[in-house]
Amino acid sequence: MDSPKVILISGTRKGVGRYLAEYYAQKGYQVIGCSRNPIDFQLPRYEHFQLDITDEEKVRKMFFDIRKKYHGIDILINNAGAASMNHVLLTTVETVKKLFSVNVLGTFLLSREAAKWMRNRPYGRIINLGSAATSLKLEGEAVYAASKAAVVSFTQIMAKELADFNVTVNAIGPTPLKTDLTRGVSDDKIQKIIERQSIKRYAEFSDISNVIDFFIRKESDNITGQVIYLGGV
Amino acid sequence: MNKNNEAQRMEKILGIIYEMIDTLNAESDGIKVVKAPNTVLLGTESPLDSLMLVNLIVGTEQRIEEELGFSISALANEKAMSLKNSPLRTISSLAEFIAGIVKEQESLNKNTAP
Known about the structure:
Chain A is an alpha/beta fold. Chain A is built from eight helices and seven strands, in the order βαββαβαβααβαααβ. Helix content of chain A is 45%, strand content 15%. Chain A has a seven-stranded parallel β-sheet, with helices on both faces. In chain A, helix 2 packs parallel to helix 3 and helix 3 runs parallel beside helix 5. With 114 residues, chain B is mainly alpha-helical. Helix content of chain B is 61%, strand content 0%. Classes of the chains: A alpha/beta (233), B mainly alpha (114).
């Protein structure tokens, strides 16, 4: 790597986000993470911002501070997400607002501000987190799957709009992982989902970083608007 | 802020917009954008294509923030994007719109300063 690339990852307090922060810091990237709640870890080449990614002014302030210190960002990973599993007849309006707010509005705000600073540079990558729940059309996940479907559409259209700025936009659709998002789901239900995959196993965090590694390669500048699902979904 | 300072601020904002237009003109093979307050930026009379407009608005926003040293509200807000009487319709209305945002932000910063 010529000079350390700056990578912003949302939702780094735990789970996949924290794994990605550790993974890319260890690979020599300058990692900037953010989360709504405070973190309990420190890493070399890692800086943390505590904010709500659905708050426009706070997001803009974070990007302003990043710009001042690092002169921009090269890669954005929109990892932060919220999930809720319930029958649609028992789903509250508050749940719908929360899922769309974090999954769609949060992704939009970070992407918009990141793309402004990636513009006019030779390299920019935005990676969004979709979900296999969208393509598998899982019962009990109507709202979550719909919010991730919105992320997929957003990814595909933003890819066209940002192509002139040398920014690629892609998404990864993970299958069930052992994280807080699936903690409340019974083993039996997870097993049924896994049975519908071509590759019948839990996804590992490294499956996600593997796909991201492909998207952020310099040579992947002709890959945009794509969604790669794990497990052959 | 007195009238003299406000005039200086407007001049500075216009200067930044013209600087952005210089950059756009240098990159464009087609029609050049005239650096004048009454140049139309939106609609069929505008010499800017959609990509040039995006670059002008975003570039101006970023240069203003660099100049001021603090983050301002996004120029692409609901008011700006409304087609009827959009503040983005000419260079002078854009400059006035930015001056209003800057003034508002300065007053907010003053009130929240420790």
